[in-house]
What does this fold into?
Amino acid sequence: MAEVIITYETLYEILRREKFREELQKLNETFFQDIINYLKDKKTILESQQTKVSIFTSVESSKTKKQIENTLKILKELYERREAKIIRMATFSSRSEENSEVDSLLPEEKQLYLELKTTLDSYRQGILFNLLSEKMPEISKREVSKDLKTPENPKDTILIKFIQAVPKFLGEDLNVYGPFEPEDIANLPAKTANLLIQKSRAESI
It folds into this structure.
């Protein structure tokens, strides 16, 4: 992505696109640092204007102060709109068992997406899947992988039922799974699921 110099106008345009486009907008990877630098520069300018006493600098000082206040409002709305889209992405991924496209997310946003999806998956498995197998809900905490790469084929999963107890383990996709008890049902990546089936730890449903 081409380098974008942050100004009040460019920030307003970023928010406008985020408001009127359904998909999450791609931001420069240095966006957060660019924002910090912009705010620091504006505050430095404001301090300089406030040290000078004249009608002209008083007017300019008021303009700069208002611009900083509006910038903070824009940042808050931008964050909340992107946050809402990320929540929808995580919910869709958990329900459809398909990973969403994460290329438009900043690194910190990718981590938020993964943590949300992991939590939703855990509760869906612990409540819904257990009820479907006539068991009381049971929630097991799952760790979030630090690897933000999406699987080569996110649709390549298999629904299995465990025959034997399986302790917590690290899958080939670097996600942590388990622990599982006999009769537990889980939707796992095909390679991991087939390995468990081959070892007679689980069976395909």
